[in-house]
UniProtKB/TrEMBL annotation, chains A, B:
Domain Pyruvate carboxyltransferase: 1-268
NCBIfam families named among the record's database cross-references: PRK05692.1
Family: Belongs to the HMG-CoA lyase family.
Lineage summary: Bacteria, Bacillati, Actinomycetota, Actinomycetes, Kitasatosporales
Protein name: Hydroxymethylglutaryl-CoA lyase
Key words of the record: Lyase, Metal-binding
Protein species of origin: Embleya scabrispora
SUPFAM superfamilies in the cross-refs: Aldolase
Length: 296, 296
């Protein structure tokens, strides 16, 4: 099972405290030293709208370049792609939102236009030698429109697949999914894009995130997103928690005999380190409860 | 799906603040008004060892007696059973620990002796017209011995089943289970006790509690324990969280189309009320994140 560490991007982006460039690099370095082989390190969105990510190029200049480690950057337009190529990311991740209202509010752009933008980005990214991945956001529900029909997610996946992504991800952006819906949407994704790898992105906003992640594993998903410490949050529910935590996910997978290659104790250390930087407690539970079974 | 509300017993027992008898009755009344039909209301253990439960008889005197609502009391010996009968509970729950060390430390009694005690309690409880249930504690792991073999749990279940319980429960007392183990142990329980109802009791200590609960539902379990607000904790990991929360469990089941008959908003209200009494935040996430989809 591949863990895509999204703490440096999705985690920090939803934290109010601006983290310094050296600390972002330290976080990424700690994840890589723990064994993570894929990191969503940065995003190349408008720095006026997302100041936490304004230093994307500087972060990418300093990340450890280790054989077998890939860095992804989120892009939403061709200007972002140009910055991503210049910064030297290994892959770009384009987000298409499954709800029209959320898409317009979040990306100032409807779904149709975003799919066209994705097509243009895909062609240019491939020319530049980058891997491409599309994340279908709000696939399990929308904060503005409510329920999102699986048929709509399947249709978006089909249209996104036409531009040949290496991978398509289903994201439960606001944490409203349940395991049964994970199965339904993964089946839809396989129908829509039989040639693409499948990835899932869960938030634990309502305590279903880990159940969803393990359901995705049972359904044969290759890659799961997680964030060191479970930091981050949800802009639509200010008191809510963020991404599923890397350490809590790895713990469950370890106990189920699913290898990730990531060292649990090192991730717990990284989460405790980040908690000091963010001046808030670690949302993940494993650091508080302790690894079981403990060392004798 | 039947929800056994264990907040008044397992939840409060692990809270340091002593809750008054009227507040315990208010908590139980709120759960019943929300639609809960089965409550572990009290325990009849040594009041010097567990002062939080010293008022068990007084609580049982004042709980609302509603058609179809059953109250359970935990008992560990015949003296406890006598008190339970006198207090007018509808069912008694006897705990047998799956690890020898934990059994001796927790109940001052080895597994063999506890199974004998259970047999004596079962006979007397049946004579008194009470339902009986056995909970196999630490079935997923022990804080002292580490891993607990499924074969041992199956053997304990088989010996417990010989005394004819109405129900046998598997308890992940310290929150170390994963969904694959839930399936294995439920299969073992069915082999060992084909005539007994199956119940599961999960803690979310390491963020696997809800995944485990939903795995148990998928495996056909009739009843799940949960605690309003997810209060309580784990004496072996002082910073850890407690039982899975009634509202977060019901939310997931609601969205999966599994009816519980319990009103989500009323449970969230009860959790917020209890948070004031205990002077601590609600561990459950739903009250913070909000019900999805929201009312239009």
């Amino acid at each position: 099972m591949e863990i895509l560490e999204v703490g440096p991007r999705d985690g920090l982006q939803n934290e109010s405290a601006i983290v310094s460039t050296p600390d972002k690099v330290r976080l990424i370095t700690r994840a890589v030293q723990a064994g993570v082989r894929r990191v969503e390190a940065v995003s190349f969105v408008n720095p006026r709208l997302v100041p936490q990510m304004a230093d994307a190029a500087e972060v990418m200049e300093r990340v450890p370049r280790v054989e077998g480690v890939a860095y992804a950057g989120l892009v939403l337009n061709r200007r972002g792609l140009e910055r991503a190529v210049a910064a030297g990311v290994d892959e770009v991740n384009v987000v298409v939102v499954a709800s029209e209202t959320f898409s317009r509010r979040n990306q100032n752009c409807g779904i149709d236009d975003m799919l066209d933008t994705w097509g243009a980005i895909a062609a240019d990214a491939r020319s530049a030698g980058l891997r491409t991945t599309v994340t279908i956001a709000a696939a399990f529900g929308c904060p503005f429109e409510g329920e999102v029909a699986p048929d709509r997610v399947e249709e978006i996946a089909r249209r996104a697949a036409a531009h040949g992504p290496d991978e398509i991800a289903l994201a439960d952006t606001i944490g409203v999914g349940t395991p049964d819906r994970v199965e339904v949407l993964l089946d839809a994704l396989t129908r829509a894009a039989p040639g693409a790898r499948r990835r899932c992105h869960f938030h634990n906003t309502r305590n279903t995130g880990y159940a969803n992640a393990l359901a995705a594993v049972a359904a044969g998903v290759d890659t799961l997103d997680a964030s060191v410490g479970g930091f981050g949050g949800c802009p639509f529910a200010p008191a809510a928690t963020g991404n599923i935590a890397t350490e809590d996910l790895i713990y469950a997978l370890d106990r189920m005999g699913v290898p990730t290659g990531v060292d649990l104790a090192s991730i717990i250390d990284a989460a405790n380190w980040l908690a000091v930087r963010l001046d808030k407690p670690v949302p993940a539970l494993l650091g508080r409860a302790g690894i079981f079974p403990g060392t004798p």
